[in-house]
Specification:
Organism: Mucilaginibacter boryungensis
Number of domains: 2
Subcellular location: Cell membrane; Membrane
Oligomer: single chain
Order of helices and strands: HHHEHHHEHHHHH
Subunit structure: Forms a complex with TatA.
Number of strands: 2
Keywords: Cell membrane, Membrane, Protein transport, Translocation, Transmembrane, Transmembrane helix, Transport
Radius of gyration: 26 Å
Main location: membrane
Strand order of the largest sheet: 1-2
């Protein structure tokens, strides 16, 4: 009888622990849900502002790289004149068409949302950090201090580089490339927006490489020794990425795109080395 009672009490205790764990899990899900809701509200508000001022945003920012007066074209030409080289881009024009009845309306909504998400990324990262932070130990919190700042800074540096360097060079090449003089280039507005957004945002994501290396190094997947030993392969991969991202045949464009990626790779090695040094210090203290 005593054994039966002990088993019953143990089963009740185990069930209580299980329910407590399940409640804790659902509590975490509820907390995460509210973090995401707040981030979504912020993105919706930003999207609303973008939608309200869309005329200026479309004419100045979105269509900027399609004009000969864009900052990149003028700067390249001035730099070429200063060093006695011809870096001026040939004259070009991009003619856009809309082929759908509600095309321009859906274009404004979709592009406003895309810009809203892009500008809302810092707050989204902040909410994710607030969700993860309580689960970290004090030393882990100190080690991860500045995560939101550095991730945001790298992302927007990448966005600016993609917008001011990769996008105009790619647009100029694609707009002026012809197979035959009898074929006229007429681009749909969706195709143009998609190209600008892809080139710009993809570069922003690529610039997050040091953050990715930091995470992988913290997990022990990546080491500075491994990155140094595979540097030659990384150079080849970077050149391939530069060739894919910039469909221009000249070496100047590939070089301009490749240099920041090389710098990012070297910075990532330094980040991995710093993480390894911190791990060795912890091991020594232990």
């Amino acid at each position: 009888m005593s054994d039966g009672s002990d088993k019953l009490i143990k089963a009740i205790k185990d069930k209580g622990k299980t329910l407590e764990a399940e409640m804790s899990f659902f509590d975490h899900l509820e907390a995460l849900r509210w973090h995401l809701i707040r981030a979504s509200i912020a993105i919706v508000i930003i999207t609303g502002f973008v939608f309200a001022y869309y005329d200026w945003i479309y004419d100045t920012i979105i269509m900027g790289p399609s004009r000969e007066s864009f900052w990149t074209y003028r700067t390249m030409c001035n730099v070429g004149n200063a060093i006695g080289r011809n870096f001026c881009f040939s004259k070009f024009s991009i003619q856009l068409i809309n082929t759908e009845m509600a095309g321009q309306f859906t274009l404004q909504i979709n592009s406003s949302l895309m810009i809203g998400i892009t500008l809302g990324i810092p707050y989204l990262l902040w909410e994710i950090w607030r969700f993860v932070k309580p689960a970290l130990h004090e030393k882990e919190r100190k080690a991860a201090t500045g995560f939101v700042f550095y991730a945001t800074m790298l992302f927007f540096l990448g966005v600016l580089f993609g917008y001011y360097v990769i996008t105009p060079m790619s647009l100029h090449f694609l707009a002026t490339y012809t197979v035959s003089a009898s074929i006229q280039n007429l681009f749909s507005i969706d195709s143009y927006i998609s190209s600008v957004a892809t080139l710009t945002l993809a570069t922003g994501v690529v610039f997050e490489l040091p953050i990715l290396i930091y995470i992988l190094a913290s997990l022990g997947v990546m080491t500075p020794h491994l990155m140094r030993s595979t540097r030659r392969y990384a150079i080849v991969i970077i050149l391939i990425i530069a060739a894919v991202v910039t469909p221009t045949p000249d070496m100047l464009t590939m070089t301009v795109v490749s240099i920041p990626l090389f710098v990012l790779y070297e910075v990532s090695i330094l980040v991995a080395a710093a993480v390894e040094k911190r791990k060795l210090k912890k091991a020594a203290e232990a």
